[in-house]
Design a protein that fits this description.
Elements: E1 10-12, H1 16-32, E2 39-43, H2 46-50, H3 56-64, E3 69-73, E4 83-88, E5 92-101, E6 104-107, H4 124-134, H5 138-145, H6 150-169, H7 184-193, H8 196-216, E7 220-222, H9 231-242, H10 247-267, H11 272-275, H12 277-295, H13 300-312, H14 330-350, H15 361-374, H16 387-405
Parallel strand pairs: 2-3
Antiparallel strand pairs: 1-7, 2-4, 4-5, 5-6
Bound molecules: iron/sulfur cluster.
Length: about 400
């Protein structure tokens, strides 16, 4: 498996594949052809269908400069999802680059840019074998395999806390045609006056909203494992930081969550375009459950239980962002997802103590991959089905009714 640096990436929102991955592709292409007078980028498939809402064009214009760049949304589905074609001048230096999820890119006919063997183990079963022989918890395993990762995890932790704090202070409306109000601050304030039993849940949800509203506004955020699902782990880091958990423990939590995300990325997918929202929110929920379980002092077996529950109850979740914006259902889905992560941790702590789980984490990852293959393309980040269509139809109907009344 690859380094956790490839999983936790810091960069511009709102979407790991449509903004962060696109930015990485621009950086790569520009590093090869820095002297060109004019750049053209053609966007295909999901990048074309939802690229405007995901700010793909803005990222490209911002990078190369609008006066010397053309972005073309192509009406064509390519064999590889999220394809970009770059060229300079009049079709010179043509290059095909793919945004493969989580902000990572692949270049046509080139070997992968990241070393796939930083972790020799490729499944949680293999990792469990090593940990049981060595007597390690998952964090010790990560630090053995990747001894220099702590600095990166610290940057990730700091950026997550910054993003949540900024989100709690922000007000106004999110960019795009949905005119959605930022509500993290209101949820946060409401958490102090709500009845005792709901306070904590509202507080943690407000953190997830805060991170996601910043991501949807194009601010610098952290993939965990993607930007559409970046509110869950960030909310938990903020929550445990607030509660006085030490920095070392928070970094260990990120390491453990990272291993869970990496196992999914290696054996299935973390991309909504490939596997539907179960691949994004399901993975983030499993990562959050693992992070919380480690911080709460649970064993490796309980952490696996929690991560499995976090993924299992998101199986089949479709990706249908309204208008192509990572806003509805994405922001609320992170708010609900972080609560589910904590529920999964509590299930592992209490139910897991007397009922062993018959479904391993590797099993549920395999099921997620299989399920993702059978989710129709309309429900995989194309905005051609589900809420994306229903909300649009409903709003058109309301507009027509209003006109008829006049
Ligand atoms: S619906 Fe889920 S997978 Fe799709 S863009 Fe939103 S968060 Fe990402």
């Amino acid at each position: 498996m690859e380094s956790l640096r490839e999983l936790y990436r810091i960069g511009p929102g709102p979407s790991s594949s449509h903004s962060l991955g696109v930015r990485k592709a621009c950086e790569y292409y520009y590093s090869l052809y820095p002297e060109a007078d004019h750049y053209t980028v053609e966007l295909y498939g999901s990048l074309s269908l939802t690229g405007r809402g995901h700010m793909s064009d803005k990222v490209i214009y911002d990078f190369f400069g609008k006066e010397r760049t053309d972005v073309i949304f192509m009406d064509e589905i390519t064999p590889v999802p999220n394809t970009m074609r770059f060229y300079t001048g009049d079709h010179e230096n043509m290059m095909e680059i793919y945004s493969v999820g989580g902000g990572a890119i692949a270049v046509k006919d080139m070997p992968p840019t990241a070393d796939p063997d930083v972790y020799p183990e490729n499944s949680l079963t293999e990792i469990n074998e090593v940990c049981s022989v060595k007597g390690w918890n998952y964090a010790q395993y990560v630090y053995d395999r990747e001894p220099d990762i702590k600095d990166h995890l610290k940057q990730v932790k700091d950026q997550m806390i910054t993003v949540v704090k900024q989100g709690l202070e922000d007000e106004g409306v999110l960019p795009g045609d949905l005119h959605l109000e930022k509500v993290a601050r209101q949820i946060y304030e409401r958490s102090f006056t709500a009845e005792e039993s709901i306070r904590n849940r509202l507080l943690i949800s407000s953190y997830a909203y805060a991170a996601m509203e910043q991501s949807s506004s194009g601010k610098t955020v952290v993939t965990a494992p993607t930007l559409g699902s970046s509110g869950i782990v960030a909310a938990l880091i903020m929550y445990y930081n607030d509660r006085g958990v030490s920095e070392d423990k928070l970094l260990e939590g990120l390491a453990v969550a990272g291993i869970i995300g990496n196992v999914v990325k290696t054996n299935a997918s973390i991309s909504g375009r490939v596997g539907g929202c179960q691949a994004e929110i399901g993975t983030a929920c499993a990562m959050g459950a693992a992070l919380a379980s480690h911080i709460e002092g649970l064993s490796n077996a309980q952490i696996e239980y929690a991560a499995e529950v976090g993924m299992e109850h998101n199986l089949g979740l479709t990706c249908d962002p309204v208008g192509g914006y990572v806003q509805i259902p994405c922001i609320e889905r992170n708010g609900v997802g972080v609560l589910r992560s904590l529920d999964a941790m509590e299930y592992a702590r209490y139910i897991g103590s007397f009922k062993p789980n018959r479904v391993s984490f590797d099993m549920v990852v395999s099921v997620m991959k299989h399920t993702g293959k059978h989710i129709p393309v309309e429900f995989k980040e194309t905005s051609l089905g589900g809420l994306a269509i229903e909300v649009k139809l409903n709003e058109e109907k309301k507009r027509a009714e209003k006109l008829n009344r006049k």
